[in-house]
């Protein structure tokens, strides 16, 4: 694949961002792993949240082969992915004051749990309020966001702050304002967003750090296996039975 072609240039951009995150955010990713391990060791529960396309990295660590079984998605109706019509409704819901608090009131989250809030811009009411309200309830919050948006845009939250201002720990995905890596003659706007690739990699790295730390402490992490390998379903049924009080995506 020619590096001068858009496809090759996108791979180069994404790889460059991944290297930058690895080198510059390594300590924060390790700290996130410690928070995950601390929560699991103390009997707490793990949740992830993201709205719109930020829900994709949140979903990526939930109920999957090779994943930590205790990762749960905190869904907000109409804001998970682009499954609403019109799609612009999902964006509008991110700007609704009070929605995050209402969701938390109806969720199983409680003091001692851990919530990872993912928002590329970190400027909308929903993720900021989610972090603020969660911490008021004694829930630890990891914010996964682009810190650059805080200097390149204005907040849409009544507090005037960004997600990064209301977390116990922040991991910066280094994505530039606008989330588009390429430009080309004849194309009227920048294109080829890399936020999903990079943020999903960060999520997997944080969970991997937590798994590794649990193992180092002598605590066996409850892992899921692929249902497409022999014995996988039997393994997963036992894990879900053993940890059913901390898994919220099964009946």
Q: What share of residues are in beta strands?
A: 5-15%
User: Which structural category fits the helices and strands?
Assistant: alpha/beta
Radius of gyration, Cα only, in angstroms? 18 Å
Q: What is the helix content?
A: 40-55%
Mean pLDDT: 93
Strand order in the largest sheet = 2-1-3-4-5
Order of helical and strand elements: HHEHEHHEHEHEHH
- What is the number of beta strands? 5
What are the segments in which pLDDT stays under 50 over at least 5 consecutive residues? none
Question: What's the main sheet like?
Answer: 5 strands, parallel
Q: Count of helices?
A: 9
From the spread of the alpha carbons, the general shape counts as: globular
Distance between the termini: 46 Å
Characterization of this structure:
Helix content is 41%, strand content 10%. By secondary structure, it is an alpha/beta fold. A 5-stranded parallel sheet has the order 2-1-3-4-5, with helices on both faces. Helix 1 packs parallel to helix 8 and helix 5 (99-106) packs across helix 6.
Characteristic key phrases:
alpha/beta; 5-stranded parallel β-sheet; globular; single chain; 251 residues
Q: What can be said about this structure in brief?
A:
The protein has about 250 residues and is α/β, with parallel strands linked by helices.
Blueprint (SSEs and pairs):
Elements (H helix, E strand, L loop, with lengths): L5 H19 L1 H16 L4 E5 L4 H6 L10 E3 L14 H6 L5 H8 L7 E6 L5 H12 L3 E6 L3 H4 L16 E4 L22 H22 L15 H11 L9
Parallel strand pairs: 1-2, 1-3, 3-4, 4-5
Helix pairs in contact: 1-8, 2-8, 5-6
